[in-house]
Amino acid sequence: MQKLEGRDVQLFVTTDHGTIRVQSPSKVVGDRETTTNLRYKVGRNLQYEARDVLAIKDPLKAGLPRPNISSTFIFAKEDYFFLYPNNYNHYHNYYRNTFQHGGISLEEMICPVVRMRSK
Fold first, then answer.
1. Considering the entire predicted model, what is its pTM?
2. Which of 9, 12, 76, 99 could bridge 103 with an S-S bond, Cβ 3.0-4.6 Å?
3. Residues 105, 108: Cα–Cα separation, whole Å
4. Measured distance CA(93)–CA(71) in Å, rounded
5. Longest dimension (CA), the chain
6. Beta carbons within 10 angstroms of residue 32's beta carbon
7. Rounded distance between C-alpha atoms, residue 113 and residue 54, angstroms
């Protein structure tokens, strides 16, 4: 930016997504191949609380890859984050009130853009 000083330019600054402070745990059960992200999971035979997620059972229709023939994607809604039943309380306390991304909250879906012009 210092090299652009004094030139007639426009600069756009943005990010690829936002984050949200997670508060509410949601239990998920999956096999060893299930992804480890706190706000989305991809796996086979996932067990989850349907009210806490957006589930995509046919990834191709949503423009997502299909790692296996029976892959399902789940995305956390609102301020939920996914936890496995083992060590549930430990991880609940560890991740609650942290900023995460990968879900479908409004904060994560809006991409901020700043347009700056030289003087």
1. 0.80
2. 76
3. 5
4. 30
5. 59
6. 5
7. 27
